Amino acid sequence: MDNLTLWLPAWLAGCLVMLTHVPLGQRVLQQGVIFLDLAIAQAAGLGVIIAYALELNTQIYAIQAIALISALIMAFIFQLLEKYQSHHLEAWIGCSFVITASIGLWILSGSAHAGEHLREILMGQILWVTPYQLSITLLFYLFASILLWFNRQHFYLIFAICITATVQLVGIYLVFATLIMPALATAHLSSVSNKLWRGYGLCLFAYTSGILLSQCFDAPASPMIIISMAAGTIGLLSIHYFKRRIAGV
Fold it and tell me: Main site of residence (predicted)?
């Protein structure tokens, strides 16, 4: 029972994350802006670091607000770059990731808990999520869904809102894996619905097996989930490859 109460909130967090990130990842891969998620996630992470530096780490609403503002500023910049620098957008996105990461490391260099804060932002603490954190994340996702319903053009804005909540829930690494790996594993499929359902299946497998493996081996959950997702991605792509070979395509 103790194990169940420990990993069930983490598993629910994974289900909540994949609900939005699988379709967002499909869009990211389609537009060819692979590092968009890392850059905006890093911007949200920078907001969290700034909140820590201002000693607001106990004020959850202040952290959420600063992280969201930071991510929205980055999303607005990308919106402008897509309009005026579309040929080099991926390069600009990569540069922004390096710049925000460097600013974050600079701020953390004066903190006695720098290593701990950096680990939380990169790897998250999915095994320690609370129902309150899940409810806040759900509110962010609902807000993004409402914006999407009324205006489908502001992709970067919607993306930033979703990423802001997720970074604080599961960390930057798991955000990237949940967005990109399912998209890569299903890129060969022509049906959008098939891409989504297989992507959801892959994430469900990864989060479930990764959390169980972390319990069995007393290992951090995020790396186990990412390794499980990588194994699932390779497995799906291998099945597709051998099917093509058998069919003689």
Answer: membrane
d(CA 18, CA 24): 9
Q: 164 burial class (0-12, 13-18, 19+ CB within 10 angstroms)?
A: buried
Which tokens go with 249? 């395509």
DSSP 149-181: HH-SS-HHHHHHHHHHHHHHHH-HHHHHHHHHH
Parent domain of 111 = 2-247
pLDDT tens-digit readout, 97-106 = 999 999 999 9
Instruction: Give me the CATH number covering residue 206.
Output: 1.10.3470.10
Among residues 224, 204, 13, 239, the alpha carbon closest in space to that of 123 is found at 224
Domain total in the chain = 1
Neighbouring CB atoms inside 10 A of 106's CB total: 10
203: which 2 tokens? 């994430």
